[in-house]
Structures are given as C-alpha cells and as structure tokens.
Fold:
Amino acid sequence: MKHFLNTADWALEDLQAMIDDARAMKASPLGDALKDKTIALLFLNNSLRTRTSFDVGARQLGGHAVVLSPSGGMWPLEFEDGVVMDGDAEEHVKEAAKVLSRYCDMIGIRAFPKFVDWQEDRQDKILNAFAKYADVPVVNMETITHPCQEMAHVMALQERLGDLKGKKFVLTWTYHPKPLNTAVANSALMIAAKFGMKPTLLCPTEDYVLDDRYVEQACKDAAANGYGVNITHDIKEAYEDADVVYAKSWGALPYFGNWEPEKPIRDAHKHFIVDEEKMAKTNNALVSHCLPMRRNVKMTDAVFDSANCIAYDEAENRLHVQKAIMKALVG
Ligand code: CP
Structure:
C-alpha cells in the first residue's frame, strides 16, 4: 500500500504516468476505475477547489466522497500519542484512521500549520498520524506541502510548453496582509526541479527562504539535471528571461508564532506584486497561482487576465490529476 503524501516519495516516471493518465481523462472524463470506491475527505481548513475536485473526480470514475470537517459535526481529534485525553479532543486519530479505513478505500487530509511553532508544524503530525494508523492509502490535500497542486501545475505547463527541461522557473514571493502557509511554495520549488526546470526562488529577505528540507530536495533534483537552485532578492535578475512565473505569498519561518515584527517587513515588499512591467522582462513567461488569490495585491488584473496566465487550467487540472492519483492508489 502506498500513500500520496509528497511528490518527493514518488519516482518522476510514476508522476509523469499519472499526468499522462490525467491528460487522457481530461479528453474523456467518465469511467469506472473507482467503481464503488469511497474516499473520506477530512478538511481541518477551508477549501473550494480541493473539496469540489476530489468529490467530482471520484464520482466521474464511479466512486464516492464523504466530506468530514470539525465544523461539519466531526468529533474533535487528538493527534499526539500517549497523551491523557482530558482536553477538548473526544477521539484519537488512531481510532479515527482505523475506523475510516473500515468504511473507505482512501483518506484525504487537509491540515494546515498552526502558525505558532515551525519546528512543531514541520513534523506534519496530522498527515503522518493518518498515514501511520490508516489501513488504506492517505492523500495529502495540503498540509505543509501541496502535492496535488504541484501535479496540476506541471500538467498545465506541459500542456503549453511540452518538455519542461531547461525552462527558467521563478517562484516569487508576493505580499499578502496575513502570513500564509509555505506549502504551495515548498511544492512549487520541488516540482520545478524534479521536472528538469531551472528554479529561481525570489523572496524579500533571507528570512523568507523556505525550509531547508524542501530547498535541499529541490537542489538535489536540480543537480541531477545539471542545475542549481538560484535564491535571490533581486526582482530584475529573477524575472529576466523567465519562462514560468509562479506567485505565492508565505510567512517568514523565523517569525513563526511571533508575527508582529514580521508585518513591517511584509508591508515593505508590496512591490513584489506580479505586474506587467515585471512580466515584460521575461521570455513571454507563463504565469500562475494556486488560488485563492487577492487580485491587485499578489498579481495585477492585467497579468492574471492575460493569455499567459494558466491559473484556470491549473485549477481545472486538479480534477484530472487527482483522479489519476486516486486510480494509481486504488483503481
Ligand atoms: N488551491 C487550493 O488548494 O484551493 P482550495 O484551498 O480552494 O482547495
């Protein structure tokens, strides 16, 4: 039994095979590969795309999704082992995972960081607890990485560019009024390197560099293709000759749990917005964002609504690629 927790756990050939299958299903969406299969979708955080695309995807292949969330009446869960459960949690993840495994064929988990202590959040305890105790495959629906989003992004890029090898990929930090999850940024950097692109990470200061674990994984994969990961705070250098620009905002890891002093740094870098002037420096780059996105804060209307923006394709591809992932796990 294999889980889909992170793309780093999967060989490039297996990921490409899923994307190829997703492209076939994009052309011909209906089938019975998940006939009578059920996926439990556990959302500890909000969602529009993930929730809808998994549910619709399962149904298009003859399966069924059950959506669970604490606000939807689920018992509050405990994720630590060996604790005295005298707090708010009524049920331990051990029982929840085992019982859901008796009803369902897969379990999807969305569990964002708590934004208090990165050393704690980086352990991805909720996802790993489900992977440990479930007797069925577990799918990461975004925790501290977002592998389904990565796959949809690569699929959208391949649809427009074909072979991605050697393309300059720029992951740019953008301003947001709140410090956000690094999950999509971690994922974007890793998948760009894995699929043979030349990654550049553009961020305001050293404090915004991503967790070593993901930078090192990207460096390892980039090195296998003869590249390095370029980390820069220079907007002009980053955008110059870029083939792909991926926009995302995230909070600086050294400020986890102490966000007040981070705010002035973020506020001073509103000019990292993806706009027409910056895009003009690129090699007619494609541009995208995982969504949801604050218009004219992270990216101008003119860029987002341009023909170079593939964000809607990427969002659509979540449906197709997640069907392929579910098929690869239990189909
Ligand atoms: N991109 C993404 O995962 O969207 P949702 O948060 O709406 O699911």
